Amino acid sequence: MDLIQDLRFLRLNEISEGWVDAVWDLEFTERKEFDDPVGEELETRDSQDFQNLHQRLLVFIQENAANEQSVWAMLQENGIPVKTLVAVLSFFVFGGKFKNAGVKQRVNALQAASLYLLLLGMPGSIANKAFHGGLFDLCTSIWTHCWPQETGKKRKKVAPKNSQAAGKKPKPQRKFAEKDLEEGEEEDDDEEEEDAAEHFSSQDLVEIREAVVLLVKSLLILLQTFSLKDLPQNVNNITRVFIKLLYFEPIIGEINFAEQDINRMRSVPEMAFHGLQLLYSAKHGDQKQTLLRIFHHLLYVILMMTKNRNLKPTLLVLSQGVLTTRNQALHFVSHMVNEGKEETLSCVRILLQHICDQMVEKCEFRSHGAHAVKTLSGLLSSSGYAWFVKWLSAFSKHSKMVGRLFSVDVVMALLEQPERSPEGCDPDLVNYLPYKYLIQEVLFARRMDVSPTVQGHALACLAQCLELPSMNATKAVQGLFTTIGSQSGFHAQTTEGNLTSHPTYRTLPFRTMELSNTQSSPCEGKVNLEHILSRMKHPNTNVRKLALQALVGLLKHNVVPTNSENLSVLAARCRDPAVSVKKKALQCVGELLALNPGCTNVQKAWLEGVCSALMDSESSVQEKALEALEEKLLSQIKPFTSDYLDMNQTLAWDLLHHLCHDCHKLSRYFSKAFEIWHKQNRFTPSFFNALTSHTEAPHAAGAWLLLSKVTMSSAKLPYGKVLDAWDKIMTNLNEVNTKTLCNVLCVIGDIAPHLNPDTQELIIRDLMSQLKTFTLPLDVVNAAVEALVQYGRSEDVNLTQSFLNQHCGELVSLCESFLASIILKKYGKQNLDEDLMVKYLHTLGTASVNCPAKISKRTILLVESILTTNSDKLADVQGELPASLPLSQFRQNSFSTKIRAHGVLTLGKLCLQHEELVQKYLPVFARELEEGTEVSVRNNVVVIMCDLCIRYTNSVDNYIPNISARLQDSSATIRENTLIMLTNLLQEEYVKWKGSLFFRFITALGDPVPFISNMCEYCLLNVLLKKNPDMFSQHFIECIFYFHSYTKHKSYNKFPQSDKEMLSSSLKGPQNQQKRFHIYRFLLEHCTDAQRFNITNKINQTVLECFADQELPLDTEGSDLLSEIFAVLSLKEIKLQAMKSKAAAEGEDVEEENMAKAVLEAAQKKVVSQVHKRVLVEHTVPLIISLKHRLEQNRSPVLKDLMAYLQVIMQDYKNEVNTIFAGDEQLASELEFALKEAERLEGMVDLIETCSIQQVPKTPTAAQSAPLASPARPPLVLPLRFATPQPPQRNTLSSLLPLSERRPNTLLRQKDQKRSNYLEETVIVKGGVDTRAISTPIGVANMNLTFDGQVSVILSEKGTSSVDENNVVCVLPSEQNASRVKQWNIQSPLRKSKRTPLQDE
């Protein structure tokens, strides 16, 4: 009776039956208010009454469990209708749904719901009609309305309400879809709940929480006794409630999922997990279906998403609470698998599939998702794990980029697990267990992906595989480069120095050689390496950067050899256009050097990369290079001791040794570092003392190199030690290396201002004595003369010039006397010492630059005679030499080519100081360039003329065409030097883009030597285009005329040039078509959209109009030019980039953070498309129609090119052909038919590409599976005589011609028989064709998931599972039967129109 007493506060006997019936009639969908004052009295009830009733009901259940006394009988005995009790409880429950409900109402609602759930748990609740599905769902979910919870979503920004905003008229609202409205309403509800939470005190929240805990406990008690077997919808709703309760409050510590006592559970999420376990009971329905339902909802917990009904999942804001809940969900799945054993494994497989399929592109989510896959896959048996790996291999070829990207993450996560043993595994799946399959067949295959993001990620992960502790993972990577590793392992260790690195596995596996009729390369490892090296030149910056990481990983572990070829590619990336790639390359070469400090090739690559980065325009790259140099070189200069040099010091002196010898060209860049360090005052007296102590060490060459860089900017050098070293060098001059001697002379010259006169005189005497011997190498002569000039410098210019005239003039006199003794004597050329002659000529040229007054006409004539036949005449001249001899060009004489080449350089140096000589010899130089046969002479003439251009620009300007013509010289050396020097002249604006210079320069892009073509591209893009951004667009149209040698246009190709020049630089003819279009594409690729638009319009206005108006004839030359122009206009590179959808092109999904950019691109594309269409309709189409009529009149073969061009420009307007070409219905019909015909041919090509003519799979069971079609690698079609028979295609050329131009049917048949295009010859590879005909296409991968409506495993493209049906819950997707390929039935609309009257007759 105590229970009845506690029920009295509900005033059940005073409730009218009409109100109760009305509540039940509403099906508990809304709250029914009371008509009498009873409702107001009930609302004032305290929550303590509910608590007392709840406790009494619990006690009643416990006390009467044994005697089975029914509460329903007690209620009936006391005249309390069950319907009334349920209706009153629903009244309180609905009170908690109001958004403005107070704490009391919310607590009462939760406690009323708890009472209802306790009542349902008592036997007889169904018989007494206490259960109602709608009210049950309301009671289980009422806490979501009562508890002010955080949704995890970002709050909307509320714009400030100012007067300006208030004055604006509201814009008309767009009509949202129902789904969008629901999203908006839910977000508004969330915001209101969050705002309401601010009005509750902490005590209020504690009170509400206690009520929620009471409700959850009541629900758990209900699930222990009440069966929901026939209520699947309610079970699904309860599952949703428990999933939401997981985020109710933070989880502290680990949850003990084996705990069964509700009262000992510490948190609501722990109770929620226990509730999910209770649902997994036979009394609540089929256990497997229940587990699938639970895993489905846990899927979004693991993915850290939130999903409302029928809405797309949204990402949660990552927080510690979200991550903790995710981790506990994974532990719960593991617990369920351990409890359920085998029957739960099929559900885990499905969960794994859907985790992969619903992953997003964000890096953090992918990382946590891969960890989840690793954890869950560890629960599978060996057969189940192999099954999942097989499925993952197919999934890695998914059509969506994020799927392929995530498959790489999953592979890396699986590699962290121990390798599975084949024991107990299905024999058909054993091949999927080893690491080798994951790395070689799944991970490495993504290097060819269509998406740069996936490519780069796969390459980066390949390098990470080498860092794994597993031996088998390293061997798997090694197997990809077997050929490379086998050739380089021992050789690198014995010849390249001491290579200290991680353990590697160089042993070649002794395996069966597979023979097949596929023409695979025997050097597969070499091909793989070449592919990685090619990725380092990829247009995408991220791909290049990650390819660097992959290559460095292979080099660090000796998978590929550390030879100069591989390292040079790495060092070249230090000059990459992207700053991030340059920094990554500097980091990579630094890592390699730290790992292999004794490897010569690594040291050279490090120097090449770091020294070139010193000249970078980006300050951050320059600073990084300076830091590397300071760490490896500057900080390692310590006082010399003969006892010991540590590893870092040894490395520093080895690097300096390379700079002195093998890498001496890099020392020019090295000077930049010392200039910066000098400004930063990095050089101290102790540094100079330490440096000079090494001048007498075995590595003295490096010390002199450093001294030569620092002496010019510092006065802190210990000059006494330097002079002592100089004296020792002078006594053993022949033993000193040439480069070292040059550095010593540089130091001696730089310290000249700091020496006393006596010391200076001694050094001058030493220098002159050595120069007079004419035994010094040529480079040393230059350095010695330069040092001599340093000792003659003074503030008085006259004194300086007097010093130079005295000493350099003496050298000139000696050289003149020697030349006269050779040239003027009749037998002077007998027994001529060629090297000595060269040294005299070189010394004469070097000294003459400093004393022009000492150069006589006799000297000039003597040098001139070396280059002509005048030397023979001068030998017969008696007495004084004539003032000059007639000279038209250089002629071969008795002197060797080497002497003549140095004679040209000497004559050029004489010209630098005498302008009258320039006017005399420039025509001779130009003629020598055209008719000379000696490569070294022509090369030196180019050098001299470019030097003269700097000094005498106006005089040499007329001879620039002669210089630029050497870009087509037969000698690669001359072409390279000409390209470099012309680039320097153009950069410094000594030369302008006039005449044919641009066109000759651009032809170097097609140079047969790759180094020259690459250098030309670098000079154009990185040097010249930055100076003149419109350079390409200004010269593009004229390029077409120039390369075709077409001169009939009134404006283009009108600059003066001889027939010989035109012929030498012409690219006319079909044999040069590839070169021409390579240049066209290069120019267009580096034009802006505005420039492309202007080029197209200008071609229409200045070229096509001239042909349409008959200003230009349609002769052979004109037809070839017009055909070329239509081909250029059809290039994809000329299409505006704004009209191309980047995301659509790559097949990548648009993420939320990129949504604004995507919207902007879409708007830009729309505007550009409208402008393009307007120009097309108003200008291009009328012009094309007019030109087409003229071509038809002349029966020109160019008509087919015009139609092909129209097809290209109408691709974006396929449905508007008749509208755009309304002025010419015949052309519209022909074009529409041509577009359909092209679409038909494209469809046939797609069918051919999807045929099952593929390589033999490497695993025995791969042929049995149906992997998804890879979007990256097309099927392999191998040439062979045996061809698959195919019907001949219709002659597409005739279909593009107008009807009036088509030949009779007999001629067409003959032409078709000769030119019909068959399929490319193919070979059927063994195992490639299963049971289908060759022409049967493979269907597009369909991975439709039915986790919402039905529960399905992700199947292969055939719609069948690759494992036993008993092991996988499999409900086939609704779209199982893929649509078959339809037959095309296309015919010309003109033919149809002609046949219609015949049919009518």
TrEMBL record:
Origin: domain of life: Eukaryota
This protein's GO CC annotations: condensed chromosome, centromeric region; condensin complex; nucleus
Biased composition (Acidic residues): 180-196
A GO MF label: histone binding
The keyword Cytoplasm appears for this protein: no
Keyword entries, A-Z: Cell cycle, Cell division, DNA condensation, Mitosis, Nucleus
Subcellular locations according to the entry: Nucleus
One record GO biological process: mitotic chromosome condensation
One Pfam family hit: Cnd1
Region span, Disordered: 153-201
PANTHER family, per the entry: CONDENSIN, CONDENSIN-2 COMPLEX SUBUNIT D3
Entry protein name: Condensin complex subunit 1 C-terminal domain-containing protein
Native source organism of the sequence: Knipowitschia caucasica
Taxonomic placement: Eukaryota, Metazoa, Chordata, Craniata, Vertebrata
